């Protein structure tokens, strides 16, 4: 039996703050300024990443040192552009409750913005200094006294508090509390820390079955499952797949790619990887939308990733636009789709993405939380309306059977009307929220139809009440204007019948639908994630899914896969339960950006798509392009695609050939060398080249003028 002292120690360990990817962070903390500024720090340690691997351990290890070098090169690049880096004034520093030397040097630091705009993000690396840094020399001077630190958590907006992990002890905390010290943004380590965890197999629920299929040239694209082929349902499934595609008007290569992916996704017996190559203008986005729509229809739990938020939102938007066509009921079915990620970085609240608010996880949780509110939530408003209608029905019965006075009935009706109108609005809000945000696994189409019927009846009943009620004067005045008692009785019977139908529908709804066991935001999020079908996020953000207990995902789709470093793709490829990976991209286009010159020949920027194609993996080529005039498409088609890509009929039309810029310089292709341009740090994680931007702006201006 454990002693109390031993149990206390164990509890203390469990309470310690966990910093993901600590191994990489410790490497960063170990670098001196001289190390950071040395372009050759890892030169003798970096080895070329091979084309094939003997084991998963060999595979993962091949990326570790290159990842350290790329992290170092990124920091060096930022250090050389410190003048424009976001800077924050330090107001107070104190040890946090998690401060446990010699390694866990956690501090709480209060700051306010002075330049650079944004509040620090979790994952930022900052330098604590006694001046606003203008260059590398300033950083070299301050590093003798003050450390760099990792932002672990942030609270607040303008004046905010951050939990930081410092690279070394802050000896004189009081000195930093004088308002004359600063925190300078250096870089953000979030993605690289997630990659580090992936390479070290530190992700929860890791699954290496798909990764094992890409180590050598014996990978499986899912075309030879004997069990699926011999199944009695095989032909029926293929026919069903073709039926799903009829409304999308795909060309033969697009249809072949989608059908192959759907047939593979139906298989539960193999682990496979497929590659779909989409040269520019061949309808890659349309094909992706069709594929995801089809996977949604067959209820295949699928994660769709891309390197950037822009690509993720574009893919999600295309699917969202088709969902209402699936069942034909407004926003029903949106609950099967989830987009998640950093709200600020995704800019999900902007006008360009209003249609995605229905599927954005944080917004979904906020909306569903209202449905468990004790005063305006689902249970309260539904029961209130049922009780109200039952009470009103009893009053009508007394009037019709026992002839109670009009004056008494009018008073009752006036009170019922006010209460009904108030409760109806709350219940209507709950109903729309529930059928919009709940996955279809939790709210059936039958229940949805009952809900919409209830909405129609409540609105009709309210309109009838309005027609029988003269604002503040109530029913009494209207009834006195009736010519005879029969007319009066007719209105009463009609009102009673509509109330009865509305009451019966609400009672049926209370029997057919039970609200999931939502207790707080965490349970709402968990239930939504566990029951959805399509998930959208960046490749980096998919690391969060490893920590969530949910039903396994069956299929992974990576869009823009050729623009993704292979080591980063290992994050979603390890998701629990994953059987199939579909990589959509074009290895002939530009690869991922790599900051390190050392890694240029080490293949660190190479994508998984490029390596698989090099090993002989057969890809589905989308072979008709609809964007470029034949005189433009000829060059890339000849140089990169072996003339396998055909020109669509639209680009061959006479009206497709237009010329806006005059001069020999502007032909089908113009290669312009901007010799005087220089890249400069533009804040957060971007760079700018003002000279190139000016040249582009001038060309665009001339294009606009020429097209008018």
TrEMBL record:
Residues 461-488 form a coiled coil. SUPFAM superfamilies: P-loop containing nucleoside triphosphate hydrolases. Residues 605-705 form the DNA2/NAM7 helicase-like C-terminal domain. Keywords: ATP-binding, Coiled coil, Helicase, Hydrolase, Nucleotide-binding. Residues 249-597 form the DNA2/NAM7 helicase helicase domain. InterPro entries: DNA2/NAM7-like, DNA2/NAM7-like_C, DNA2/NAM7_AAA_11, P-loop_NTPase. One of its GO terms (molecular function) is helicase activity. Pfam families: AAA_11, AAA_12. PANTHER family: DNA2/NAM7 HELICASE FAMILY, P-LOOP CONTAINING NUCLEOSIDE TRIPHOSPHATE HYDROLASES SUPERFAMILY PROTEIN. This is DNA2/NAM7 HELICASE FAMILY. It comes from Salix koriyanagi. The lineage of its organism: Eukaryota, Viridiplantae, Streptophyta, Embryophyta, Tracheophyta.
């Amino acid at each position: 039996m454990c002693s109390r002292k031993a149990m206390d120690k164990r509890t203390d360990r469990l309470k310690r703050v966990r910093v993901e990817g600590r191994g990489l962070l410790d490497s960063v903390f170990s670098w001196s300024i001289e190390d950071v500024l040395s372009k050759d720090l890892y030169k003798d340690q970096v080895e070329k990443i091979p084309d094939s691997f003997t084991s998963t351990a060999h595979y993962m290890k091949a990326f570790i040192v290159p990842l350290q070098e790329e992290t170092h090169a990124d920091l060096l690049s930022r250090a050389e552009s410190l003048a424009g880096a976001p800077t924050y004034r330090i107001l107070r520093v104190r040890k946090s409750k998690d401060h446990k030397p010699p390694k866990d040097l956690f501090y709480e630091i209060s700051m306010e913005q002075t330049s650079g705009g944004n509040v620090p993000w979790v994952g930022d690396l900052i330098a604590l200094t006694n001046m606003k840094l203008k260059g590398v020399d300033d950083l070299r001077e301050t590093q003798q006294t003050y450390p760099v630190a990792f932002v672990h958590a942030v609270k607040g907006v303008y004046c905010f508090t951050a939990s930081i992990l410092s690279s070394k002890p802050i000896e004189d905390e009081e000195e930093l509390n004088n308002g004359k010290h600063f925190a300078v943004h250096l870089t953000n380590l979030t993605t690289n820390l997630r990659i580090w965890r992936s390479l070290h197999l530190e992700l929860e629920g890791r699954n290496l079955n798909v990764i094992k299929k890409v180590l050598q040239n014996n990978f499986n694209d899912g075309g030879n499952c004997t069990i699926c082929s011999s199944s009695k349902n095989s032909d029926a499934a293929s026919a069903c797949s073709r039926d799903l595609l009829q409304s999308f008007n795909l060309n033969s290569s697009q249809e072949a790619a989608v059908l192959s992916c759907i047939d593979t996704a139906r298989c539960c017996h193999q682990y496979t990887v497929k590659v779909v190559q989409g040269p520019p203008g061949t309808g890659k986005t349309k094909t992706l939308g069709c594929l995801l729509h089809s996977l949604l229809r067959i209820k295949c739990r699928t994660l769709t990733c891309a390197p950037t938020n822009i690509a993720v939102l574009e893919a999600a938007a295309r699917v969202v636009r088709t969902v209402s066509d699936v069942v034909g009921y407004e926003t029903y079915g949106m609950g099967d789709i989830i987009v998640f990620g950093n709200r600020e970085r995704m800019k999900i609240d902007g006008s360009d993405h209003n249609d995605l608010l229905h599927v954005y996880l944080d917004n979904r949780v906020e909306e569903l939380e209202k449905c468990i509110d004790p005063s305006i939530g689902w249970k309260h408003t539904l029961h209130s309306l049922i009780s109200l209608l039952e009470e009103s029905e009893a009053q009508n019965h007394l009037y019709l059977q026992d002839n109670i006075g009009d004056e008494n009935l009018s008073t009752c009706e006036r009170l019922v009307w006010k209460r009904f109108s108030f409760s109806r609005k709350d219940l209507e809000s709950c109903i729309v929220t529930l059928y919009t945000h709940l996955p279809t696994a939790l709210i059936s189409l039958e229940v949805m139809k009952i809900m919409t019927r209830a909405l129609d009846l409540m609105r009709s009943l309210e309109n009838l009440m309005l027609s029988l009620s003269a604002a503040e004067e109530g029913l009494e005045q209207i009834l006195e204007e009736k010519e005879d008692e029969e007319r009066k009785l007719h209105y009463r019977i009609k009102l009673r019948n509509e109330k009865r139908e509305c009451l019966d529908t609400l009672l049926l709804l209370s029997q057919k639908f039970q609200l999931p066991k939502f207790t707080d935001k965490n349970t709402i999020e968990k239930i939504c994630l566990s029951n959805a079908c399509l998930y959208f996020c960046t490749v980096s953000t998919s690391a969060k899914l490893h920590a969530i207990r949910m039903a396994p995902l069956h299929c992974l789709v990576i869009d823009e896969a050729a623009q993704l470093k292979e080591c980063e793709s290992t994050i979603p490829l390890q998701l629990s339960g994953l059987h199939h990976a579909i990589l959509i991209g074009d290895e002939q286009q530009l690869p991922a950006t790599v900051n390190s010159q050392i890694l240029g020949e080490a293949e660190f920027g190479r994508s998984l798509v490029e390596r698989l194609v090099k090993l002989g993996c057969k890809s589905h080529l989308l072979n008709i392009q609809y964007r470029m005039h034949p005189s433009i498409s000829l060059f890339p088609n000849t140089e990169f695609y072996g003339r396998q890509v055909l020109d669509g009929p639209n680009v061959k039309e006479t009206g497709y050939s237009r010329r806006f810029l005059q001069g020999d310089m502007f032909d089908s292709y113009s290669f312009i060398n901007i010799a005087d341009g220089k890249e400069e740090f533009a804040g957060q994680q971007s760079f700018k080249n003002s000279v190139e931007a000016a040249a582009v702006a001038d060309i665009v201006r001339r294009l606009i003028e020429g097209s008018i």
